Each structure stands twice: as structure tokens, then as C-alpha cells.
Amino acid sequence: MIISPRVVSVFFVLLLLALGGATLLFVFYKKLYSRLSVRIAVLILASGLITLIMAVVFDELNRDTELSRWLRLLQISLLILGGPAVLGTLAALFVRRPLQQFNNTMTALEKSDYKAQLQPTGIQEFDEVFAKFNSLIRRLHREERLRKDLVSDTSHELNTPLTIMIGQLTAMQEGKHTMTKERVSIVKEQAERLSELVQQLDAYTKARIPDAGEPEDIQLRQFCQQLLKQFGTELKQQGIRTELHMADELIIRANHNALQKILANLIQNTLRYSEATELTITATPHQLMFSDNGKGVPAESLPYLFERFYRVDKSRNRTTGGLGLGLAIVKELAEQQGWEVHARPAQPGVSFVLILN
């Protein structure tokens, strides 16, 4: 029995199709298909197979016939353009849909619609970028809320003492109240509150300007002892005991003023918010940890403690009021030193960790 060349050619074509299909199934099964580069590679492979199959088929069909010049040109054109046309069309589908989604989301952001989120596409390269972009949208949304809150927070914090001062002074001016030490003390307290708020804003502004001072070797234990001594009265009044856990000879290299402001802000944060009875500063050559045993911070608030104007306590009373700039100042100063700063739950209390790079 003699097998005709036509049967052999058809068998060869079917074999190529089977191999191509098996290759595609293997790629899909191994989940490599989620990568755009793999998809394009598969398309190129498929395009080559299609071109080869078309060439074999045309050759078999035209083996016993003579084609005109124009029909031969048409066949050659199909062979040359057919594969790339299929490749280009499918590749465009892989890229066009994610880009269209990205464009729509950008349009929504231009209208301040921060609810817009990019959905996964199944293509790894796009999904990685989309995830980072979604994270950026959420951060921009938080920043926008903080900016809006700044106006109301600052207005309230400034308006409250001003209203009290004007009320007291007006009443004394009109003779409704006599000037007593108690009323003068009230006016003085509110004036000090105004001064503190202005100082916070000024301190944050200065913290964002790099200090031209050169870093120096600082004997950390002695440095901390002197700083705690400055806050001795306030710490004693609130019943806060302090401990230093670090070697006497430990020396770190830092800008003196920046380190002083960082630790001072952390101490003030403890005095104002923690309700602690113990304050511990622990240090190694590469890490400085500032811990208290107070009421701590809710887990959902920890990632935002160093953001400008963020306050765990949203109330606006005298004890826990303020603009929420103390820890933002700590972060700015630490990053200028090339350090990292994090907040961790201490059980009880909270720990602020400075990574000294």
C-alpha cells in the first residue's frame, strides 16, 4: 500500500497543530500565562506555526496546478502578513483593555473620585503596577482628608483660646468682671495655648528643612540623662519612672539638634497621651527604642501615627488637643539622618523604634 504525498502532508499539518496545542496547554497549565511576556512569546510561536501550516497547505494544494502571477503574490502576501496580523490583533487585546481601565481610573482621579480602583487583569506585569497605583490612590485619599481636616482643626484650635481670651477681656473692659488673678491666669493660659500651637506649626516647618549641621559622635546615655533631666518636673508630676537600657560607652553618630528634637517630641508625646507610669529607652549601635507602659495605640492607628495632623484621639479637649504634628516632626528629622522610624505595640503601651542606618 502506497501512501500518497497529500496524506503525508495532511498528517504533518495535523502533527504540527497537535504539538502547538500541547505547547499552549502546557503554558496555561503551568500558570505562566499570567505574564505578558509569556503571552507575547506564545503568540509569536503560534504565529510561526500558522505561517508554516499555511505554507504547507498552499504548497500541497498547488502542487499539481499552475497559478497565475497575481494568485501567487496573494498567497505570498497571506503567508507574510497572516501570522503577524493574528499576533498583532491578539497582543493588542492583551494590552488595550488594561490601558483602557487605567485611563478611565485616571479620568476619575482628575475629578477627585478616590473610590476608583484598578481591577486585576490576570496579567502579572499590569497587576503589579495596578496594585501599587491603588495603594497610591488610597494614600492620596488619606492626604486629601488630612488637608481638609487641617483647616477645621487649626481653626478650632486657634478659635477656642481666642474666644475665651476675648470673652474675658471684654467682660473686664465693660466692667462686668473685675480683674482678678484667676481671670488673668485664664487669659495667660489661653495665650500660652496659642503660642504652643504656633510653635508646633513652626517646628514642623523647620523640621522639613534639612539641618546644615554636621553629624557628630554622641555619648547616648549621657545625652539621654541630660534630656530626661530637663523634663524631670513634668515626669515626676505625672508619676512616670524612667529607665535607660544601654551601655555607658555607647556612641552614635547623629546631628545633635535633630536627635534632641526627636527624643524631646517622643517624651512630650508620652507626657500628653500615654497615661504611662514607666518610660524606657533602650539602645544598641543600630537601634534606639522608646517605650512606655501606657494605654497604647489601636492597631488600626499604628500605620498613620507619623502622618501630618493625624490624631488617635479625635476629641479636641485641652489635654489631648493639638494639631498632631509631634510624631510627624520625629519622622521628618529621623529621615534626614537616614534613619527609619516605626511604631509597635508594646503590650502594654507603645514602642517607637528608630533604625540607625
Descriptive labels:
Helix Hairpins; alpha+beta; two-stranded antiparallel ribbon; Heat Shock Protein 90; 357 residues
Our count of domains comes out at 3
Largest sheet, spatial ordering of strands: 2-4-5-7-6
* Annotation field: number of helices: 9
Mean pLDDT: 78
Helix-strand topology string? HHHHHEHHEEHEEHEE
Query: Largest sheet, if any?
Result: 5 strands, mixed
User: Which class best fits the helix and strand makeup?
Assistant: alpha+beta
Globular, elongated, flat, extended or rod-shaped: what is the shape? elongated
How large is the share of residues in beta strands? 5-15%
Q: What would the CATH topology of the largest domain be?
A: Heat Shock Protein 90
Quickly name the level 1 CATH class of the largest domain: Alpha Beta
Q: What is the helix content? A: 55-70%
Q: What report would you give on this structure?
A:
Strands 2-4-5-7-6 form a 5-stranded mixed beta sheet. The N and C termini lie far apart (83 Å). Helix 5 (181-207) packs parallel to helix 9 (326-336). The protein has 357 residues and is an alpha+beta fold. It is elongated and about 120 Å long. It contains 9 helices and 7 strands, in the order H-H-H-H-H-E-H-H-E-E-H-E-E-H-E-E. The longest helix has 50 residues, at 124-173. It folds into 3 domains: 5-101; 124-205, Helix Hairpins (Orthogonal Bundle); 214-355, Heat Shock Protein 90.
